[in-house]
Design goal:
10-stranded mixed beta sheet; alpha/beta; 13 helices; 323 residues; Rossmann fold
Length: 323
């Protein structure tokens, strides 16, 4: 059953958990994404620097406001100590996106309990986890924390989108650290902003909430890419090349393609991105939307593929990373 009654405005809430998750909310505010944002952290000083509609310092009785110390058990206890406050802040949106960087304590221990509580109380709410997996060189401790967190997240999220930092390093490891992490935050913020625009902006070709739900509901593992290019097909290829997961798109169950381009885009040109996925990648279920964007110089495309497999994650988790 769809979580958005016909004729109703779709509501979307984004929750950032821990340091990386809260940093993504800062970028969301900078791009002006039309979504409600909630920052949840165990570290008081960092939380002060976050721009968000709601800011919750959780687990003060557990951490004293000094963070989780990289311990997922402490992160979970902090979340559970203030779960009622968190649920009151979230409310009952149609779509809930919870984002965080796995490897530390707050997100690794805290994302899954939030998603689980929403699933139990409001099963109609679509739950999307958008998380990053630590660099392998950060050590076994962080990797194990991330494995612990991700295995639990995948059991309670409808769609779990994972970005592997090792792939990020291979793509842009040559640039300065602060710009590399800003790029990662910007990518996540852009994807979330585009998802919001699906429902809040006028479109030439619309993606309905039911279409969106068909792609993400109980969909397992997901991959996302964002690209621009001189032609629509170029932007689509760039988006697929920018996916930060070793996912084989040909094995995806379904995909969503969101195109934003200038008014002079022809029908054939607009359809070339979807054609790439249906003919070159042989996907049978592809939903596409098109918005005229006067402010863009080049076509911009966001691709979300669901029901994918990742050999890396399957090896790390010891199980199949899809449902």
């Amino acid at each position: 059953m769809s979580g958005a009654p016909e004729g109703a405005r779709v509501t979307m809430t984004v929750v950032g958990v821990g340091g990386a998750g809260c940093n993504t909310l800062n970028r969301l505010k900078e791009v002006g994404a039309p979504v409600k944002t909630i920052a949840i952290h165990t570290e008081a000083n960092h939380l002060k620097a976050i721009k968000s509609d709601v800011k919750l310092l959780v687990g003060e009785t557990v951490t004293g406001g000094f963070g989780s110390g990289g311990n997922p058990n402490v992160g979970e206890r902090a979340i559970m100590a203030d779960l009622d406050r968190i649920m009151a802040a979230i409310g009952r949106p149609n779509v809930l996106i919870v984002t965080g960087g796995l490897g530390g304590g707050t997100a690794s221990g805290g994302v899954a309990p939030i998603l689980s509580a929403v699933r139990d109380r409001f099963p109609d709410v679509i739950r999307i986890a958008l998380v990053s997996f630590p660099f392998s060189w950060e050590g076994l401790g962080k990797v194990n924390n991330a494995r612990y967190g991700l295995s639990r997240i995948m059991g309670v999220a409808d769609l779990t989108i994972v970005n592997l930092n090792d792939i990020l390093s291979r793509k842009i490891g040559y640039i300065q650290v602060q710009y590399a992490f800003k790029y990662a935050d910007s990518l996540l913020a852009a994807v979330i902003s585009d998802l919001a625009n699906l429902f809040y902006m006028p479109h030439v070709v619309s993606i309905s909430f039911a279409d969106f739900e068909a792609v993400v509901r109980e969909a397992g593992l997901g991959a996302v890419g964002l690209g621009v290019g001189g032609r629509v097909a170029d932007a689509a290829k760039t988006a697929l090349g920018n996916i930060l997961l070793d996912a084989e798109i040909k094995e995806a169950d379904s995909a969503l393609v969101y195109l934003q381009a200038t008014p002079n885009t022809s029908l054939e040109e607009a359809g070339s991105a979807t054609k790439l996925l249906t003919e070159d990648y042989l996907l049978e279920r592809v939903y596409w939307g098109f918005r005229i964007a006067e402010d863009l110089n080049e076509p911009r495309i966001t691709v979300i593929a669901s029901g994918v497999r990742s050999p890396t994650l399957e090896g790390l988790l010891g199980i199949s990373a899809t449902r």
